[in-house]
């Protein structure tokens, strides 16, 4: 499959502080790629380099097969959308007026405004002034703005960080639908649950370096200890090992009607991250 | 450099709505008009006084308002949104400057009208006023790009207001302090010289030097503004 992002030996140094170093990865066209890491790990720096807002100190970064320096060209800018942690909306204007500006800038019909507002659950609020919105609603308007021109590639920096679970789920559904239409999504987050439910592949970023990169499934399998936990009728929880010994024990519990629940002991992405990096996500 | 009228117009419309709701900045445009009305009623008729008001309009409307508009876009991170859109440097700077240009022209007109300034050659003065406004708008854009917030912008722009509004008073002491001779090349002083010559009956050919000097300031300011804007596109 065609690569839409190609990054090789990428590094960015601010003064004497290294933000990222030796970062290598490829993002395939049509996938949702998660860039996971705690605050200050270099996620936003990477997005800024990939969108032409920062110049890398060394290494190469290509988007749509061209160096990121080409992203200054307006034809390339039409092909990607960005949602950053800073809203960049006009507070004195209504939601509608904010989106109208971007419809005109991207040459998109105004009918698209209702469509994207529906996707972020804000259709009824379009005449509200942005300055009167809650943080979560503002975040959803920013997302609507990033979606308005149906970009081929969407960069999302912590897209649901300010949202409640209901709205996060709504946004996840919207992103999946967009991805099914062919939009590639590059997502940074420190929410491992979000990464597990959305991403086709994830990269763990820690101290500016990629520590692991694979599909969530493969990561979980490779870090799984293959045991299962059985909850018994006497409320006891028993961890059974893999193999015939565990199978025999499970057979005995089932044969005597003692089993209430059975759970596999796969690690979550969050637990794998902590195991690999020794750091908690925050 | 390609320019898209649709994008320029989109930014202009957005700026108009945003500016009309921003009383802190929009109220400034009435100061020269009110002063013009006072001066007109007082019967002041010297060219220096008329151009004190016009230069004040340039400093307070073209430079100050533009500086605040740009600084607010930077402060609220909305300028980055425009920079990441398909709008070119010309679209953004054109769109951001058009509202200020229109307001400057309207305020200059009403201020001059209320101050009862009747130029001997309206075509030359109009051309000189339009040309001068480009310089002040570019200067305001530059200062706005340097500022981190509207508050900082309103402080940074103060020397500009003082030098270009009241700078013409310096010419009174130029003979005493020859080093100040350099001030006479400023666009505000050149505009007064041009208007004085026009009032004495000069035609277009007689004020080419003043036009050339003002044009030089405009070109330098626009080039610097584009360079600074492009630097601000990356962190």
Tell me the structural class of chain A: alpha/beta
When the domains of chain B are counted, the total is 1
Q: Beta-sheet strand percentage of chain B?
A: under 5%
* Coarse shape of chain A: globular
Oligomer: heterodimer
Q: What Rg of chain B, in angstroms, do the CA atoms define?
A: 18 Å
Average pLDDT metric of chain A: 87
- Could you tell me the mean pLDDT of chain B? 89
InterPro entries (chain A): AAA+_ATPase, ABC_transporter-like_ATP-bd, ABC_transporter_ATP-binding, P-loop_NTPase
GO molecular function (chain A): ATP binding
Domain ABC transporter (chain A): 5-232
Keywords (chain A): ATP-binding, Nucleotide-binding, Transport
Describe the structure.
Chain A has ten helices and 13 strands. By secondary structure, chain A is α/β, with parallel strands linked by helices. Chain A has two domains: 3-220, Rossmann fold (3-Layer(aba) Sandwich); 225-263. In chain A, the strands form three sheets. Chain A has a six-stranded mixed beta sheet with strand order 6-7-8-3-9-10, sandwiched between helices. A four-stranded antiparallel beta sheet of chain A has the order 2-1-4-5, with helices on one face. In chain A, a hairpin with a 2-residue loop joins strand 4 (58-63) and strand 5 (66-67). In chain A, helix 4 crosses helix 5. The longest helix of chain A has 16 residues, at 165-180. The mean pLDDT of chain A is 87. Chain B is mainly alpha-helical. Chain B has one domain (5-232). In chain B, 74% of the residues lie in helices and 0% in strands. Chain B has eleven helices and no strands. Chain B has helices at residues 5-20, 23-26, 30-42, 47-75, 78-84, 89-114, 122-146, 150-156, 158-166, 187-199, 208-232. Chain B is globular. Chain B starts with a helix and ends with a helix. The model of chain B has no long low-confidence stretch (mean pLDDT 89). Chain B: The chain crosses the membrane at residues 21-39, 51-71, 92-115, 121-146, 153-174, 207-229.
């Amino acid at each position: 499959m065609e690569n839409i992002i190609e990054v090789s030996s990428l590094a960015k140094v601010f003064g004497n502080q290294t933000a990222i170093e030796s970062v290598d990865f490829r993002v395939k066209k049509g996938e949702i790629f998660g860039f996971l890491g705690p605050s200050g790990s270099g996620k936003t720096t990477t997005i800024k380099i990939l969108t032409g807002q920062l110049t890398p100190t060394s290494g190469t970064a290509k988007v749509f097969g061209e160096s990121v320096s080409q992203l200054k060209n307006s034809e390339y800018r039409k092909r990607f959308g960005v949602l950053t942690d800073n809203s960049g909306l006009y507070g004195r204007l209504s939601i509608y007026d904010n989106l109208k500006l971007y419809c005109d800038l991207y040459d998109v019909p105004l009918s698209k405004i209702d469509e994207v507002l529906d996707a972020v659950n804000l259709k009824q609020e379009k005449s509200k002034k942005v300055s009167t919105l809650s943080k979560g609603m503002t975040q959803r308007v920013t997302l609507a703005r990033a979606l308005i021109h149906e970009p081929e590639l969407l960069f999302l920096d912590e897209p649901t960080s300010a949202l409640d679970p209901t709205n996060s789920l709504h946004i996840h559904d919207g992103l999946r639908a967009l991805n099914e239409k062919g939009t590639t999504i590059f997502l940074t987050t420190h929410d491992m649950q979000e990464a597990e439910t959305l991403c086709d592949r994830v990269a763990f970023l820690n101290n500016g370096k990629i520590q692991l990169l694979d599909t969530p499934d493969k990561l979980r399998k490779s870090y799984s200890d293959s045991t299962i936990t059985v909850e018994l009728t006497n409320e006891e929880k028993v961890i059974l090992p893999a193999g015939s010994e565990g199978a025999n024990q499970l057979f005995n519990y089932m044969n005597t009607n003692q089993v209430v629940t059975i759970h596999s002991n796969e690690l979550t992405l969050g637990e794998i991250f902590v195991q690999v990096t020794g750091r908690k996500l925050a | 450099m390609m320019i898209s009228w649709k994008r320029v117009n989109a930014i202009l419309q957005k700026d108009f709505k945003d500016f009309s709701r921003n009383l802190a900045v929009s109220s400034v445009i009435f100061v020269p008009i009110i002063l013009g009305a006072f001066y007109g009623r007082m019967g002041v008729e010297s060219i220096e006084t008329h151009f004190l008001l016009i230069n004040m309009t340039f400093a307070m409307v073209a430079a100050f308002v533009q500086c605040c508009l740009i600084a607010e876009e930077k402060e609220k991170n909305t300028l980055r949104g425009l920079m990441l859109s398909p709008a070119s440097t010309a679209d953004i700077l054109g769109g951001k400057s058009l509202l200020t240009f229109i307001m400057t022209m309207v305020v200059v007109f009403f201020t001059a009208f209320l101050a009862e300034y009747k130029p001997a050659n309206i075509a030359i003065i109009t051309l000189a006023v339009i040309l001068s406004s480009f310089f002040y708008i570019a200067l305001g854009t530059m200062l706005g790009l340097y500022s981190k917030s509207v508050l900082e912008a309103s402080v940074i722009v103060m020397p500009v207001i003082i030098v270009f509004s009241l700078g013409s008073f310096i010419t009174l002491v130029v003979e005493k302090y020859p080093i100040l001779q350099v001030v006479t090349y400023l666009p505000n002083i050149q505009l007064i010289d041009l208007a004085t010559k026009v009032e004495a009956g000069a035609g277009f050919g007689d004020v080419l030097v003043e036009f050339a000097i003002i044009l030089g300031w405009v070109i330098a300011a626009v080039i610097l503004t584009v360079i600074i804007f492009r630097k601000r596109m990356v962190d």
